[in-house]
Amino acid sequence: MENRILYVRLPCNPIFPIGVVYLADHVHKLFPSIEQRIFDLGTVPPLDFASTLDACIDSFKPTLLVFSWRDIQIYAPVGGRGGNPLQNAFEFQYAKNLLVKMRGAMGGLRLLTSYYSELWRNVGLIKRGLKRAQKYHSDARLIVGGGAVSVFYEQVGNMLPKGTIVSVGEGETLLEKFLRGEEFRNERCYVVGETLPRDRLIHEQPTPLEKSACNYDYIEKIWAEFQYYLQSSDFYIGVQTKRGCPHNCCYCVYTVVEGKQVRINPADEVVAEMRQLYDRGIRNFWFTDAQFIPARRFIDDAIELLQKIVDSGMTDIHWAAYIRADNLTPELCDLMVKTGMNYFEIGIT
């Protein structure tokens, strides 16, 4: 039976789903005959989640479902989908006025309600998708990964169907081995109901991977919602220039999700990927690295990339990234301005 892979990005804020895009691109480069499709529930109205998922599965009839789960328990300190958790916590803990304290308690309760509602909804969509796919292929398999699963892989596994492959961190080499019929359990993963997650699984280092430019001609063919992210002139599209981060910031999980070993994507490949998006009208890029300049020894790599962006002629772009304040030099800052950096989130740890 020929494999047919359906990637489903579970509902979340409308952020470009770079994870499933890179997965599908990687698989296509290795297995060009495998049919793939990307379905992005982040572009679907909430009342239509179930019906559109059913329709997609009925149309495509996948043998393998790959669900990408980005968000669990997003406690943004300045407000998010569930409210303002920092304000709620401070009001409940420190307010002397009883009414203010009650307001903080009710805000916290709304936050928990929002969190658990999304959790149960997403688990329900995963189970629904697998059951639907098994109508057409009784042996259809399920892989669940993404940022949320990578952090809560032990807890999520207790809620997923038996036989689900829970992927922690990067999924390219896991999926590659699975499709080749090779043993994949030595990757950062486990199978629900068959094995327990290894101790400190999240701290294992990912398998090194040579990254080349994403083929957006192919991605556009298999992803009906792709144009959704090209409509707005102020929307930022993700491009990854490296993976991994050597730091141990207490507020960040990148260092365990991507590993401490920094792996640089070739600058020519990054620029080639940007050019494909640029030619489609994109002018705003978000470098999705854990850190654009993770340490001073990577400054030369950043300079090389930015200089090649200048040389490419893409002079009217803007870009954003996570930046460490202690890794900036005058030459690097000059290139950052020349290449259109207009927003960054800065770390000072």
Structure commentary:
The chain has 349 residues and is α/β, with parallel strands linked by helices. It has two domains: 4-73 and 116-198, Rossmann fold, CATH 3.40.50.280; 225-347, Transcription Regulator spoIIAA (2-Layer Sandwich), CATH 3.30.750. 39% of the residues lie in helices and 15% in strands. It contains twelve helices and twelve strands. The chain has a six-stranded mixed sheet with strand order 2-1-3-4-5-6, sandwiched between helices. Strands 7-10-11-12 form a four-stranded parallel sheet, covered by helices on one side. A two-stranded antiparallel ribbon has the order 8-9. The chain is globular, with a radius of gyration of 21 Å. It starts with a strand and ends with a strand. The model has no long low-confidence stretch (mean pLDDT 92).
